[in-house]
Design brief:
The protein has helices at about 10-20, 30-40, 60-70, 80-85, 105-115, 125-130, 160-175, 195-210, 235-250, 265; strands at about 25-30, 50-55, 75, 95, 115-120, 135-140, 150, 175-180, 185-190, 220, 255-260, 270-280, 285-290, 310, 315-325, 330-340, 345-350, 370-375. It is an alpha/beta fold. It folds into two domains: about 10-30 and about 265-375, Lyase, Ornithine Decarboxylase, Chain A, domain 1; about 45-260, Alanine racemase (TIM Barrel, Alpha-Beta Barrel). Strands 1, 12, 13, 14, 15, 16, 17 and 18 form an eight-stranded mixed beta sheet that branches. Helix 6 links the parallel strand 5 (about 115-120) and strand 6.
Amino acid sequence: MYQGSINKSTWEKVLNFIASAEEKTPYLLIDRDVVIRKARLIGKGIDNSKVFYAVKAHPDIEVVRLIDSLGLNFEIASEGELGLLRELGVSPERIISSNPVKSPDFIREAYSYGIRYFAFDSRAEVEKLSLYAPDSSVYVRLSVPNEGSDWPLSKKFGVEPDRALELLLHAKERGLRPVGITFHVGSQCKNIYNWSTALDKVAHIWQSARQEGIQLTLLNIGGGYPIRYTSDVVDIAEIEAMVNRILKDHFPGMPQVHIEPGRAVIGDAGVFVTSVIGKAERGSENWLYIDVGVFNGLMESIGGIRYSYIVGSRAEKKRWVLAGPSCDSFDVIDRDVLLPEPVVGDHLLIPSAGAYTISYASEFNGFPIPKTIII
């Protein structure tokens, strides 16, 4: 078996776990030390910043407990995520909600718990927030370019600068506290200039709001920090150095900066441990079947994320179509995957699988959601 893209320390932990535990595959191993390292790194390069872990990236309670112990704050969007943080006793001052469209029930519950920071991008959301979360601090979602992101997010949410200013003024009229602006450059963003372009748009609104009597103090730069899957990506320190430089040059008084990483905290800490359950030749293609698929853990593989794969075989390398266990033909994880031929029963490891795997998973076709294990 070869190491591939897993770092040496994680590799040793994974192999030791597989050798010593009698855990049935598939399961997801999370390297505690990688989570700790990423939690300490993110935000280090931006002055006056706070880090809010996006719970949706991996909501396993033990993972969230670990992140809580490291002092990170949390970003949530639902009653379920709030219930998880409530169970862990997370104080409301450490929680924000940046989903621009929230259900009335969630707003009521979050406000009752003590949460006071909410994103918005429409008049309808202003009306809900003014009714169910009066006097809350709100920040408008700006639409920014998402080119270079594996998972673009610019279509569903966000408004252009003129509309953003109008909404900030409307929020003030409705008794809310318009405090800032947020944006998202897209999940797994590999184009560092997306942050620069976004900040240019923000600076324009920032100045216009001041001229209208609204003194903004909060800039939420969302998530988007990338991790390595099959190729190198822009470094977090490089992104933050550029962001910090722009903030110092164009934002007087240095705003409070909120960062909402999900993938960047947990993604490269995770390794899926799966088993080969079948092989077949279909025309000119070799098919390899494993016991986790797009429905119970690898949904992002159909949306642009390409994983790397590791098998413990020294046989001849072949090109494979990699498929999951369900009887649905949609359950195809990847194509043209070059791997030494394994035998049925061999392990197949998938690095960088910590984010948006378990959180997207279902029990379609009766296949279980893989267990998360911290090592």
